[in-house]
């Protein structure tokens, strides 16, 4: 998984203002609400998809940058005086925030819980029973999921929402086993390997993360 790169802004159009006024010129009503002609570019999204982005600069907006999605287009409102170089990393952060908000709205915790219970029934005779299984957005980049044995709560990173089903199943099995066993010793792997695609799951996640396996890491695949 590569880190997000600031987008390159390809400018189209120029400032427009009626009556020969320049951006920021004052009228009797105050600062002219000048908006630059649309500045468009494509931003790479997760999974290789692209989102069209429209940047509008206004003389009314002094410092803050805001973004919203309308009809599949990310519309960014920015100050006139902010350069493309300053704006690019801000757009990247706003895009990530919008993605997380969208994922929280669409990810189904109930379906995740049902899948975990089905896997428990299939591989552990239903003896490993979590109290909750839910999607979260606060797992760090080296952790795909976590489990609190004392409460029976399992948390799955939202970054796994788009992986193949066998990978998500492998992660769920991994965390189910942690309901019974701490650490990653021989007893843990004996149970985890009841799921036949455990090693394939680990390989997939290692490739996705682009990092070496760490057998001593806490609660990660």
Strand line-up across the major sheet: 3-4-6-5
Q: Note the gap between the termini.
A: 15 Å
Give me the secondary-structure category: alpha/beta
What is the number of independent domains? 2
CATH class of the largest domain: Alpha Beta
Stretches where pLDDT is under 50 for at least 5 consecutive residues are: 1-42, 44-48, 211-221
The second-level CATH architecture of the largest domain is 2-Layer Sandwich
Can you tell me about this structure?
- By secondary structure, the chain is an alpha/beta fold.
- It folds into two domains: 18-106, no CATH class; 109-209, 2-Layer Sandwich (Zincin-like).
- It contains five helices and nine strands, in the order E-E-E-E-E-E-H-H-E-E-E-H-H-H.
- The strands form three sheets. A four-stranded mixed β-sheet has the order 3-4-6-5, with helices on one face.
- A hairpin with a 4-residue loop joins strand 8 (145-148) and strand 9.
- Helix 2 (109-124) packs across helix 3 (165-178) and helix 3 (165-178) crosses helix 5 (198-209).
- The radius of gyration is 24 Å and the shape is elongated.
- The two termini are 15 Å apart.
- Residues 1-42, 44-48 and 211-221 have low confidence and may be disordered.
